[in-house]
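Hello again, I could really use a second opinion on something today. My current little project is about how a certain protein chain folds up. You're getting the sequence in one-letter code plus the fold written as tokens. Here's the protein in full, and shout if anything looks odd to you:
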Amino acid sequence: MGRVPRISDSEWEVMSVLWERHPLDALAVARAVASRHDWSARTVKTLLSRLAAKGALGFDRDGRRYLYSPRVTLERCGREASRTFLDRVFGGAVRPALLYFVRESDLTPEEVAEMERLLDGKEDDA
């Protein structure tokens, strides 16, 4: 697998629309993000062009319009964003990051139980 491109916050908004549903043309993407942002169709087209240049999106021509689809999955982009965040904020160390989020979050008993199951599974793998 190739490298996962770095995606800006605005580009994430566009990718989120296309991860949910694709292929879409620029106008459909602009309509989908309109409820969250006051972006013009031109702004959305610029973001789509950047994402295509980065290799995050592919497109097919349909007459005069382009239909865009993701070339990278949400999971792969999420892993890359997580690694970048861990490196930048916690020096790449998972333990302090995990401890920080557990301490700062209001976790339900069900969420705590799920985390315990996940950690128990890690012990079994070791």
